Structure formats: C-alpha cells, structure tokens
Amino acid sequence: MLTPFHLAIPVRDIAEARRFYGGVLGCPEGRSDETWVDFNLFGHQLVCHLDPSLGKDGRVRAHVNPVDGHAVPVPHFGVVLTMEQWESLVQRLRAQGVRFAIEPYLRFKGQVGEQATLFFYDPSGNALEFKAFKHLTQLFAK
Fold first, then answer.
1. Residue 69 and residue 75: Cα distance in Å, rounded?
2. Which element (helix H / strand E) includes 12?
3. Which PANTHER family does the annotation name (predicted)?
4. % helix / strand / coil in the chain, to the nearest 5?
C-alpha cells in the first residue's frame, strides 16, 4: 500500500492559497494557522506556508526543461490519478478558468510510459502536474 506524501510549498498569500487549492481544485482544508494551511490533495498532505519574501506580486522562480516537445516547468509537483479522476480534473480546471502551462494531452503516445498529463501554475507560481496512465504498471516502465 502506498502511503500519503507530505509536501510544504511557499505561497505569497494564505487567503489566495485557500481560494485556489480549496476553491478551484476542491481540496478539503485541514489544520491551519496564520502562516500556513493544510490541504488534502487527493489523499496527500499539501501544506501552503506563507513566504513573505515572495510579496503580493511575487512568484516562485522556475525554469523549463524540454520533454516530449513541451517546455516542462521545474520544479513541479502533482499526483498520479486514475484516468477517470484525471478526466474529471481536466473538466473542473476548465470550468474554473485555469490557464494551462501545458494543455492536457497524451505524452509519449504509443510508447512505453504513455500517459495523460497537464501542467498549470498556482497564483504563487508553484507548478503542478497531474497525470494518469491507462495501465499504472507503466509508471516506472523503461
């Protein structure tokens, strides 16, 4: 059995993080304080910590690496979902007006590791990737 991961990320504004992770993504909120808030990200613990160095207009800095003809933001995080969860998330994100950094598509089509994937940024500039495999056994296939 896979156990949940814990990830803490910087955000520029806690209320903004609540609106995005709680409202846009629909992640249930857990514990919180003035400078941090926990979210249930598909069964995993995501903690948004206020980072005053980002400022109201600040964003986390990232670069991109080429993968399958796309500019993949690094660093990034996300969750491997079932194909049904992924398709539902795509619909939710589109309905919420989320702008994709990489539009939902099938990566490595017809190859080992074929996967549905998408990328977008939260308001603080943290890059997120959600993916799904037709066959989860392909997750680490070479």
1. 18
2. none
3. PTHR39434, VOC DOMAIN-CONTAINING PROTEIN (PTHR39434:SF1)
4. 20, 45, 35
Structure tokens at 70: 């796309």
Domain 63-138 bears CATH identifier 3.40.50.300: no
Any idea how long the chain is?
A: 142
pTM above 0.70, yes or no: yes
pLDDT digits 0-9 by tens, 25-74: 999 999 999 999 999 999 999 999 999 998 667 888 889 999 989 999 99
Residue 23 half-sphere exposure, CB side, CA atoms within 13 Å? 12
Which CB contacts under 8 angstroms, 24+ apart, belong to 96-102?
A: 96/23, 96/24, 98/24, 101/71, 101/73, 101/127, 102/70, 102/71, 102/72
Report helix, strand or coil for 1.
coil
